[in-house]
Amino acid sequence: MSAYILDWLNLLFRWLHVITAIAWIGSSFYFIWLDNSLEEPSPENKKKGFGGQLSSVHAGGFYEIGKYKLAPPVMPDNLHWFKWEAYSTWLTGFFLFALMFYVGAESYLIDPNKSQLSPPLAIAMSLFILIGGWFIYDGLCKSPLAKQTWLLALFLISLIGALSWGLEQIISDRAAYLHIGALIGTCMAGNVFRIIMPGQRAMVKAIEAGKQPDVKYASASKLRSVHNNYLTLPVIFIMISNHYPMTYTHPHSWAVLIAIIMIGAFARHFFNLRHKGITKPSILISATVALAVLAWVIAPTQKPLQTSAAIEVTNEQVLSIIKQRCSSCHATQNTDSMFTAAQAGVILENMDQIRQWAPRIEARSVLSNDMPFMNRTNMTDQEREYLGVWLQSQK
């Protein structure tokens, strides 16, 4: 029953996390679009202190939007803030992260084939990465390096690559990827909590006191908001990456992750420029080509047979391997205590079902070692080879 309850908690927080992430990313996309799409204000609006204006239509209504160069002369009675989208996304994401990697540390976080970490030590290391990572990022953004945008970006991506490589040496492949995603998400939420919101409060306080707000608060908030915007596509990829083992189980998965982060950020750059009226299809085309090249480079190859002669694998042998190694998590009534229902709806109890799911079996148990999960049932390399031979014979 405890596993069943954990499944429901996982479902609940995953659902909430997706909903809140949509709200946060949606508002990020909207405000970057809005800021980049502002037009020269009319003479009348210039007198009001506007630095830009925009007209739009949506859902049967017309809108006139104006942005002050720095701040309005008098604070409005009703001022709308955008913060809880970020906070709720991080909170639901952290609870989901904790359910998976802290409550289930022995199964999801620790890979005994890589290290013999105890759960408390592995959890402490995980928390240190999230907290320490934010302080390193924040410090770099406040350093002279921040004045060189591209240099800062290259330095940060190098740090992420080094961390990703290091994590892959000591924790599970999935956990390594998701820790990078959690760290990026923490930095994004930290930008809102520690930089953007305090800056906006300081500006509001200055206006209420009849003073001119310090422009440094607006500049710092804009910088971190832009960082968050460029990180949205990479972090969404990491959120869904656990469904695609060809990325995180690759021998150089850290490099695959860095490549996808850079491609995602570059693709986002196309849209940010387009909002300013600068259309460069070459950016989107090159990002698409880069993704296609990456897919080609990391494409799995059929592993050569280790046996000295060709072997013939019977249906009975395949059924025996599947029942012994896979059916504990993929059956009408699972026997694995961690998974209460057939994972991903895949049931493997007879040959018809095995043939039905043959492509997925090949992708996750032959071309990669992603399944069985953490190899909990100790599938051998020879058994994977036998499955590969049989699957090839069915094509």
Biggest sheet: strands side by side, in what order?
1-2
Distance between the termini: 41 Å
- Based on secondary structure, the structural category is mainly alpha
Percent helix among the residues?
A: 55-70%
Q: Residue ranges: pLDDT <50 for 5 or more in a row?
A: none
**Beta-strand level of the residues, as a percent range?**
under 5%
Helical segment count: 15
- What can be said about the biggest beta sheet? 2 strands, antiparallel
Q: Supply Rg.
A: 25 Å
Plain-language structure description:
The protein is mainly alpha-helical. Among the domains are: 83-267, no CATH class; 315-393, no CATH class. The chain is 65% helix and 4% strand. It has 15 helices and two strands. Strands 1-2 form a two-stranded antiparallel ribbon. A hairpin with a 2-residue loop joins strand 1 (50-58) and strand 2 (61-68). The protein is elongated. The two termini are 41 Å apart. The model has no long low-confidence stretch (mean pLDDT 89).
Offer a quick outline of the entry.
The protein has 395 residues and is mainly alpha-helical. It has helices at residues 2-37, 43-47, 84-103, 105-109, 119-141, 149-170, 173-208, 215-240, 245-248, 253-275, 281-297, 315-325, 351-356, 358-366, 381-393; strands at 50-58, 61-68. The protein has 15 helices and 2 strands.
